Amino acid sequence: MKKYAFLFSAFFFTGIIVSVQADTIPDLALIPTGSDCNTYEVSMSNPPTGALEHLKITVSISPNGSNLNATLGSALEADDYDLEVTSINSITISRLSTSAATNFQLPSMPDTSLTLFAFEFFGQLGDTVTAEIDSLVMITLATEDSIGIDNPYTISSSSASCIFNEGAVLSGTITSLQNCMGAINHSIANATVVISSTNMPDFTPVYTQTDAAGDFSGIVPGGGDYLVSPGFNLSEPDCGLDDLDIALVSGYNLGVAPFTSPWSVVSADFNLSNSISLLDQIGMRRAILFDVYPEGFQSWRIVNAGVLNGGSLNENALSLITETATVADVPLSGVSNINFIAVKTGDVKVSCNQCITTNSSANSVPLAGLKSKIRGDLSEGGIIELRLSPEEAYKQLWLIGLEFILSPEHLEILEIRGEGGFRLQEEGYAVNAQTGRFHGIWLPLEQQFLELGKGDQLTVRAKVKRSFSTIAEVFSLLSGANIYPDGNKRSWSISPQQHSKIVVFPNPFGAQFTISGTVEVGQLRVFNAAGQLIHQQQLQPLVEHQIIARNWQPGVYFYRVETPSATTSGKLIRK
């Protein structure tokens, strides 16, 4: 029998007396590591140097603990130790030999303690979580007779606790290259920041806002993995957009003016497609003129500063940007410097000038009236074409946009096409089938004027949904017409000298009739055959009015429409 330096009581194993003599006894302890109260290691002083048959040590965590993780001590990594973290809040290191050939020895650590494993645990805010070495420790010596002998041990430090009363603080700053509405000294105030957990399903997201300096912070339980998602929008998303921004995007697309800042590339991606093209120029123009924005548009993009800050970026790398920050395994000491850069979408020149406002003007300007023609079948189901063209040729015209509405109850717009200077660019126009609204964008190369010839025209092809008696009835449905010859909004209408005919239909009428055709505000009066006034109301220009007459007696009536420029009268028959 081999001799071991341990003093142990005599045991009788199948008639064999085994006695050992010991000078030292192993000591186990929980040793805190780091500055947080939730990180420890299980240490063994005076580890046995002889052959071992079995080793098993367990640390139990109180039920309110969570997110346990453990790592094997570096001195044990080369051997076959099993380190298990269970669902019942325990961490166990174990090693078991199956024969004398597989007996093992703990590494000899003469000058220091042997670290068996390190671990950490977490808890909810307000909780006190405890860790304790279980008393059922097994350190079994191997013998020549294949009979294991449990070795005595001590536990000098068996338990520890941690109070999660403050939690971990996640903090950072959102700054902006632009200094404009919502930004104070280039810091974004009142941005919303949402901190959510990616590994704790029951975690309630933390909502916080940036202060005047752009700083934010949120308290979360330590040990979790979190996603930080900022957001910021302006009430006027076109703030800061102007023609110079479009010019810079055009220069980039033409390859003559590359961007010097990665944030300019982010700003120029107006439609959030992860590329920069003519479509971004068109989208910016539509936003400036018509307040129409791409689907999913974000007024501000809050980009993770760690991705691009100080770096370079071209459109091929736009997909690399991220508008969130992931923070894993948060220590109790928290994580700071979770910083973001706020980029005003479309404000490529990084100035964020005062928001552009649209202006209405009654002054005579080029294209305030367009010559118009209609041809085709006015009956229900027929196809008509409305052609708009200038009455004279225009040179050096800064035409940017045009819009109008055709009543969707009467006409279904099938096609819009332009010729000459009215030629529409790809994706440069929009038709809303529900409202009958048409938006057209003309985007010349920057610093170049458009020209319109007398033969140039914009053609609207539409299907008739209700029959018309005269062409004038069609013109009366045209409303909401504006042009943008210089970036400002100007009212546009068909010449009243050509299309001022008042139309009443049907006539004779039954329970109601319709009156339309006025291009100015007018006053309608209806008289019976005795000359008595039986109905009056105001007529709005280019609007179709339904007059309810179900209580009128059958017979002859007379109407009069008075406008500032003309008076029109006629006869009505109630059948």
TrEMBL record:
Pfam families xrefs: Por_Secre_tail
Keyword Magnesium: no
Organism of derivation: Phaeodactylibacter xiamenensis
NCBIfam families for this protein: Por_Secre_tail (TIGR04183)
Residues of the Secretion system C-terminal sorting domain: 504-573
Signal peptide location: 1-22
Protein name in UniProt: Secretion system C-terminal sorting domain-containing protein
Assigned keywords, A-Z: Signal
